[in-house]
Write a structure and sequence with these properties.
Elements (H helix, E strand, L loop, with lengths): L6 H7 L4 H56 L4
Length: 77
């Protein structure tokens, strides 16, 4: 049984117009690189927001706890 040759490889090798094929490959890799970069930026932004949001929530919880403690410690009239 003979293995079928990959159409992708054969088209790249036997491209009558190899310059256009090379340009297509280059644009594809560039767009992929751009997509990866934007995704990385997005993930960093979400990570930063997640941590800052968590800090804000913890701050609110802490301050409400401090208020409760202050009420407890306040002398009763």
């Amino acid at each position: 049984m003979e293995m079928m040759r990959s159409k992708k490889a054969s088209s790249r090798v036997t491209a009558a117009n190899q310059e256009s094929a090379a340009a297509a490959v280059e644009s594809r890799t560039a767009s992929r690189r751009k997509a990866v970069r934007s995704n990385a930026v997005e993930s960093v932004a979400t990570r930063q927001f997640r941590t800052s949001q968590a800090t804000a929530i913890q701050g609110h919880v802490r301050s409400s706890g401090q208020r409760r403690q202050a009420k407890r410690d306040a002398p009763r009239a």
